[in-house]
Design goal:
Blueprint (H helix, E strand, L loop, with lengths): L1 H68 L11 E6 L5 E7 L7 E11 L16 E4 L4 E7 L3 H4 L1 E2 L2 E7 L12 E4 L8 E2 L11 H8 L3
Antiparallel strand pairs: 1-2, 2-5, 3-4, 3-7, 6-9, 7-8
Length: 214
């Protein structure tokens, strides 16, 4: 009788031990699963923040790039223009335009349209159809050159010149009216005959190179 009781108690203790072990294992699995879900949720939120932040930054960069692509055309006034002349075998007339804005850039297309002494047609271009443009930062200067390397190109002294800018489309003119630059009023002497004018450039040396006087 005593042996039977002993065996029964041993079996009961073994069953109890197995039950406790199973319960502890199940508790551990639930705890691990919960931690895994929390970690996964936290990681997902973190990724979402990064994506949103990156999207906002990309949108900002895109807006800045779009703003740079929409630079306005340069406005034409005689105050922003200046003419000068160098005589000699490689003589030339310089046309200068200065962007007097302190904060805004502007764009010049191709070459200036210059009609000396009320000529019906402006000077032809040295390089027609080149599709050239120059974007000027605030207070920057652009240059165009008229070569006067022969007697015919040097011509005679001019009284004035009507100036107009070219438009965005090749060969088009801006909607603004031409302005008349009076050389006597500006205390400038310019002699021009049968010559041509270069495109606008951001440096005088580049304009002289196109004109063949550099």
């Amino acid at each position: 009788m005593t042996a039977r009781r002993t065996r029964r108690r041993s079996a009961a203790y073994a069953a109890l031990a197995l039950g406790l072990a199973g319960s502890l294992a199940l508790t551990g699995c639930n705890s691990s699963s919960s931690k895994s879900k929390k970690s996964s949720s936290s990681s997902s939120k973190s990724k979402k923040r990064k994506i949103i932040g990156g999207g906002a930054a990309a949108a900002g960069a895109g807006a800045g790039a779009a703003a740079n692509r929409h630079v306005s055309d340069c406005s034409l006034t005689t105050a922003r223009l200046q003419f000068g002349q160098v005589t000699g075998p490689k003589g030339y007339v310089t046309v200068r335009y200065r962007n007097s804005s302190s904060s805004l850039s502007c764009t010049l297309y191709d070459a200036p349209l210059l009609s000396f002494n009320q000529a019906k047609t402006p000077l032809p271009r040295v390089k027609p159809g080149s599709g050239h443009l120059v974007t000027l930062r605030p207070h920057a200067t652009a240059y165009a050159v008229i070569p006067t390397t022969s007697a015919a190109a040097l011509g005679t002294k001019q009284k004035d010149v009507a100036v107009q800018f070219m438009g965005r489309s090749e060969g088009s003119r801006t909607t603004g009216q031409p302005v008349t630059y009076n050389f006597a009023e500006k205390y400038t002497t310019v002699s021009v005959g049968q010559s041509k004018v270069t495109n606008w450039y951001s440096t005088l040396s580049a304009a002289k190179l196109e004109a063949g006087v550099g």
